[in-house]
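fold-stage: in
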Amino acid sequence: MLKILVFLIGMNADRITEKLNILADAAKYDVSCASSGSKRKNENKGLGNASNGICHTYTEDGRCVSLLKILLTNHCIFDCAYCVSRKSNDIKRAAFTVQEVVDLTINFYRRNYIEGLFLSSGIFYNADYTMERLVRIAKKLRTEHKFNGYIHLKSIPGASDELMREAGLYADRLSVNLEMPTEEGLKLLAPDKNRQDMIQPMNFLKKEIIQRTEEKALFKKAPQFAPAGQSTQVIIGATPENDQQILYTANHFYKNFNLKRVYYSGYVPVLSDSRLPALNTSVPMVRENRLYQADWLMRFYGFHVSEIVDQHNPHLDLDIDPKLGWALRNLQAFPIDINKADLQLILRVPGIGVQSAQKIVSARMFGKLNWEQLKKIGIAVNRAKYFITCNSNSFERRDLTGTAIKQYILSQSQSKYIKAATTQLNLF
């Protein structure tokens, strides 16, 4: 299929296929492209529409979408211990030209293989040299081809404000990877890198997004600037940070840099280095899953990070989700009357999601709810029944300890992530 495609766009089929294989494979370690949140409209008979989900994920209406996810190059001037593209690693190197990436994107899109582009890169020469080429690709797609599909650019740490500003005019989302959860971890595994080079562009983007949003509110025709915001990614398991350190880092960047998402990527042992975990070890995929669940509690459920992890509980429980863990540590707050409790308290009940909580508040306006009605709304009764009362007497046992409740719940359900706890999550 690839050979037919590149032949149609007038390229050297074998060479482009080889580049695509190398640079698409190298891009798989970056997980920060799951969704866009962009609403870029197709105007002037252009190509595509940026939609609400990117890279083999599901939109709110259940639609699965995908994007072309590649590196511009896997050449790199840095020697980060955790990176497969590190300059000392003996691998095949390749680099696309600006026009090759543009042509691949347009031709893949025309054949309905993708709905957008996620473009990252190793760093050759310096940050500005690399970032300038990423910006040129996005600019060509937008201005020459009228491409309105989703574009996510992985910003290069240390790039100038001028290039970051131009990138925001053409990309839907920009992201700068923090890479390690702490500065100490970064110094250990990437001593040539400077944390401040990552912070500076994130701070610039925050200010620019706020300013452009205000301009857009005042002037309808003001240009969009990174409408899907900015995100970042941290690698977990390559350095010894615990979940408390990781989540406090995420909380700091959410609050101070207005990030849309923090992505958690379990370290994949692909390189031998005395500073890294052994090659035969891997981060359990359930740990990634628990971090994402905790992240959602902070962003959508009103939990403060200190309620999820603290000095006494620095690691998330791998057996149960963090909301259930909090509830078992705070049994004095339960049971709550589902027909009287406010929305924020209902959101803290294990087994009740955001949409279900909103439905409960709306439905009880027409009468008191019982277990059957709660099941129809969509709550997980096998979890919630230990923490709520409703208009029914079918379950009123309230003398259980936290340990007993945990065992009852575990005996009735098994996480798909626990079954594969010793295998690194394959997101690609």
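fold-stage: in (second)
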Amino acid sequence: MRTNTIAGPLVAALLLTACSSGEPSPAPGSKGTVHIDIHGWVGYEAQAAVLAYLLEHELGYDVKKRKMKEEDSWKDFGTGKVDVIVENWGHNDLKKKYIEDEKVAISAGLTGNKGVIGWYVPQWMVKQYPDITNWRSLNKYSSLFRTAKSGNSGQVLDGDPSFVTYDEALVKNLGLDYRVVYSGSEDALIKAAQTATKNRKPVLMYFYEPQWLFTKVKLVKINLPAYSIGCDAVAAKVACDYPPYLLDKIVSRSFAATGGRAYDLVRNFTWTNDNQNAVASDMINGKMTADQAAKKWVDENKIVWQDWIPR
């Protein structure tokens, strides 16, 4: 059970006075516990790490992290096992179920990130096959993407099946000679992109931004049929590109009501793709732990996060 307490006006004033006079921040755990679920991509973990660091070191909360698949997290909003999902990609079906119908969750505002999902190929392939970014040309090049798992069809490499994807419907409805193969994780997608770039090996893959990989590897997005409002309303009939995503934070309704300054911090949090990629890159390329990368970013970016701290 979450044990958050809400400081009264006098205590809050004393804390503000202590902070302004240079005294130490409250000890982690002194204000209660916040439960944050961790989903399966490094950008999410980077954002969760920064929020957790500020909750602990600036506000004095204890943070408990739990690795979960996206849908399973939503199921626990009503049980008290999760307070915060820090980065949500759409999921209108889950919003309807848990926010509108069951009323156990609410949106806590945008993260500031601009989310993009699509199909990508290495930049070298675009130079060699200039029309490959036009989806109508993909069947002409399907043989380049054949693998043992895709058989006589080209392969579209996806990540974890729980990620936001309607690639199987796209392949079918656009009449493409391809087969969707699930790699199982973000790590597998990243390795595929790195190998394809280094060894000039063809790959057509599902991927997304923000993602630190774009600072290291050049990928080019395929121009699928343009997205229009409602074109993805029926998953089985989708024949358009993914929509642009304004990513948001989802919290349990009980956390919003009783979480006090912890909830205020989550609600106030907003940053950029570049901010997230910097933390994620330190985790992957700098071999830092999530906590170390978060501390580095917090130490270097007070001008960004100081306004998130509730007064």
